Amino acid sequence: MKLEVLKFPDPRLREKSVDVTDFSELKKLSEDMFETMYAENGIGLAAPQVGELIRMLVIDCRPRENKDRYDIEGMSELEKKITQPLVIINPKILRSEGKTTFEEGCLSVPTFFDTVERARWIELEYFDVTGKKCRLETDGLLAIVIQHEMDHLEGTLFIDHLSLIKSNKIKNQIKKHGYPQKDKQGEQEEDLVPAGGGGRGL
Ligand code: CO
Questions:
Q1: Ligand 1 centre from 134 Cα, in Å?
Q2: Does the pLDDT of residue 96 top 90, yes or no?
Q3: The one catalytic residue among 25, 31, 149, 190
């Protein structure tokens, strides 16, 4: 079942999500989250984005047919070793190294994109959907998506990482005018939207 994705400034996106303690009821939610993410052309989705304030993410940022915009630099060797799609529960970053930047978007802040700095490499501990404890290390787009989705668990959005001026400009524009209609995206202020108004929904 496709779920409704909450959009900024919905206050539920600002809540801190709680740890999952009961793994017995998560299968249906994870399936619904994947269905929602794929329908919206997203590459990651956090449970609080669909109003479930639990520490759970779904991710599939593999290159997809006819979606070469997700395959910015190809998959890294570390990314290739990890089986996707991924359900990640109660994630904890054990170690991180380096810095990287990427032009991020978010299904909860549609039509807006901007460059965000993240750690380049992370080592992550998490539980899978069956409650099994897992560990992975990755860089590339997968590391970026994991960090973006983990922010949602703290009530943080990618626009919070921008300069105060840029961040306030986007927030005020959305609060004042809402989101642009799909057929009117071209009329938006140019510096807020990349050429072609592409889409990297995280
Ligand atoms: Co997001």
A1: 23
A2: yes
A3: 149
Token digits for 120? 């380049």
Cα of 158 from ligand 1 centre, angstroms: 7
Rounded to two decimals, the pTM is: 0.89
**Ligand 1 centroid to 102 CA: how many Å?**
13
DSSP 108: T
To the query of whether residue 154 is one of the catalytic residues in this protein, the response is no
Cα gap 83→68, rounded to integer Å:
19
Q: What's the length of the chain?
A: 202
Contacts of 107 (CB under 8 A, 6+ apart): 5, 37, 40, 42, 45, 49, 201, 202
**If we measure between CA atoms, which residue out of 148, 158, 157 comes closest to residue 14?**
157
By CB atoms closer than 10 A (0-12, 13-18, 19+), residue 120 is middle
Report whether pLDDT(189) > 60. no
Q: 107: CA distance to ligand 1 center in Å? A: 6
